[in-house]
């Protein structure tokens, strides 16, 4: 039941998914899982069931799209939003409430984080509303329930949980005052009628979505996002997507780790009192010259310490094969890992590196971005993607990624005794 292009084409048509962005193994695993659930014995059998059942079509999409999110992911984005929201209200003289869009909203952590950040910043309920949207009805239903387990709360600062949640036996229930600020609905960003009659939004969050699309679909989605964002608004994206927006004329607002972009020709500068003084740092290493970052299969991959498990053994084996120049075997091992285990940033990094070696620049770029989606500060993926962008003439995007890699390296060295 593997390598059946019909399922790849179905997901591309329905949700714009580029198979290269996630790897065939993940889609094949989802097809196998759904086939077992419905009792389909062959690929043709499951394909016929899929064509007949809208519910099964949605179930396959759910099996492929595994939401990985938590409250206040990328916290600087929410701090920046709060500052910009206060400034925006003053600019429009509080003549209306702010409109904020979160898509895909997954299971609700992002739109509720937006609401909590603005309430904590002192905004009154009538001064803003948040619209959350996702292609998955199951995710939207979970968001509407507003009940979360411990995995939704990560990081060192969880004071917001005490302010906005109540703990019960089945998990943490979000407060009604937060829930009332958020409206949730099912919607597909590729639907041309999406929010057609709605006014534009002051702030739009669309993070870690563009990396799943091929270039034509990215262009299509960007045009939709541009239409949804007010001309003076701000678009928040994922850490691996900055260069994509840069190519379409959007500019970073200049706040590190906010991943926020606007249409303004000049960066938007928030009040300087909110920006911490940078620590002294050594100069970043120069970017490689225009030629491709790898021209032979002798490129060395730095192995990681593997945990004592089957997954760890596979990771170590991939590193060994890649370092020995056995590209085909290493790629097969990566596909095996993704088929049998949850996605891992290091595996997508290796797939990117192997594609780089083979001269498949676009495929390599997709894998590097997937690695950065799972681990935004993955230093090797940052540097290799920077080198790839530089070779393609995107010097600005390359410099941004190189700076992030330098910050990651500095933070890592400072954390060591």
TrEMBL record:
It comes from the Bacteria. TPR repeats lie at residues 345-378. Residues 406-417 have a biased composition (Basic and acidic residues). It holds the Pfam family CheR. This is Chemotaxis protein methyltransferase WspC. Residues 1-241 form the CheR-type methyltransferase domain. GO terms for molecular function: S-adenosylmethionine-dependent methyltransferase activity. GO terms for biological process: methylation. InterPro entries: Bact_Chemotaxis_MeTrfase (IPR050903), CheR_C (IPR022642), CheR_MeTrfase (IPR000780), SAM-dependent_MTases_sf (IPR029063), TPR-like_helical_dom_sf (IPR011990), TPR_rpt (IPR019734). Residues 398-417 are annotated as: Disordered. Keywords: Methyltransferase, S-adenosyl-L-methionine, TPR repeat, Transferase.
